[in-house]
Amino acid sequence: MSGSPKLVTIFGGSGFVGRYIARRMAKQGWRVRVAVRRPNEAIFVRPYGTVGQVEPIFADIRNDASVQNAIAGADAVVNCVGILNETSRQKFEDIQATGAGRIARISAKEGVSTLVHFSAIGADKNAESEYSRTKAEGERLVKKGFKSAVILRPSIVFGNEDAFFNRFATLAKFSPVVPLVGADTKFQPVYVDDLAAAAVSGVLGQAKAGVYELGGPEVARFGDLISKVMHVIRRKRLLVNVPFFVAGIKAWGLDIAQKLSLGLFTNRILTRDQVKALKVDNVVSPKAKGFKALGIEPTPMDAVMDEYLYRHRPYGQYTELTETAGKIKA
Questions:
Q1: What is the rounded CA–CA span in Å between residue 93 and residue 131?
Q2: What backbone torsions phi and psi does residue 95 show, to the nearest 5 degrees?
Q3: Which residues, listed in sequence order, are joined to residue 178 by a DSSP beta bridge?
Q4: 3-state secondary structure 150-213
Q5: What is the pTM of this model?
Q6: What is the pLDDT of residues 50-71, one digit of tens each?
């Protein structure tokens, strides 16, 4: 029907970044198909729109028929799927390379108008990290399968549900020492909703085809970022820079433990591949297209961090009141 709303399929649409894109697309009046492996765990996306506007469906990007079913009838496709560590069933090559290429190829076959693909800063076919190598291979396959694709490469992403700042804030609640691997490595944290805005620009055809590297307005050392987190959550902790050699040994032990556990233990603490990735700065390249080319002003960390990290403070939302009361002289 010519007057019916357009449809976008978002692979990984219930994930950290995907849910923000789904919400923005619903506000644009589009129907949103959230393609995930466990639709029953993605029911929370339905209230992002009116009744029936946002619907989670099953999709496995390792399977042609499943991907085709998820894409059928869609005007646009967004691929947010990615993993930070491998398991017995989830491999970098399958998800970030072959799976990305499959989505691009089938999107072109199904006549999709626009494709937005999420990669990562540091994607490099010659990288030491397999995560970074498969991200680069995914980009190559996406360009091959869908020549007009918009590829977004974010730095570390922060926001309410992030697994970066929240992770260290949680650790600080239970430990007087916070170990850091690659404390001198530089990052350019980017706000999750800014990424969603960039993706929407791609879906709506407002962004030209090509690669965009997306980072926030601040570049900082890893150690300085975690110091900022400690200040926000009002906790004084000893930050210890762990040498890469020592971190590699620890990560090796954790990786072995995952293999020997036969799937009972998943190493989400520190992997050998993550140690390799942490050796390389994660910042926008000087000549890369970025937020400016998309007409988006990136959000500074200080404008957002207090809003969601306050829950990690000693007295939560009442910490500032407690601090103020302590300064009042009797």
A1: 9
A2: -85, -50
A3: 239
A4: EEEEECCEECCCCCCHHHHHHHHHHCCEEEEECCCCEECCEEHHHHHHHHHHHHCCCCCCEEEE
A5: 0.94
A6: 999 999 999 999 999 999 999 9
Asked if residues 237 and 178 have their Cβ atoms less than 8 Å apart, the reply is yes
3-state SS class at 115: strand
Token duo for residue 132:
């970074």
Residue 315 confidence class, pLDDT cut points 50, 70, 90: confident
Percent of the chain residues past pLDDT 70, beyond the cut: 95
Only one residue has tokens 């959000």, namely: 299
CB atoms within 10 A of CB 88: 11
For residues 261 and 154, what is the distance between their CA atoms, to the nearest angstrom?
33
Q: Widest CA span of the chain, in angstroms?
A: 75
Q: For 7-157+188-216+282-296, CATH number?
A: 3.40.50.720
Residues 6+ apart with CB under 8 A from 192: 16, 17, 20, 157, 158, 159, 160, 161, 162
Residues recorded for the chain: 330
- Integer Cα distance of 290 and 204 in angstroms: 17
Of 209, 162, 150, 184, nearest to 282 by C-alpha is: 184
3-class DSSP assignment, residue 11: strand
CB 100 within 8 A of CB 134: no
Is the CB of residue 107 less than 8 Å from the CB of residue 99? no
Alpha-carbon gap, residue 83 to 118, rounded angstroms? 12
Domain ranges for the chain, please list them: 7-157+188-216+282-296
Report the 10 Å Cβ neighbour count for 55: 17
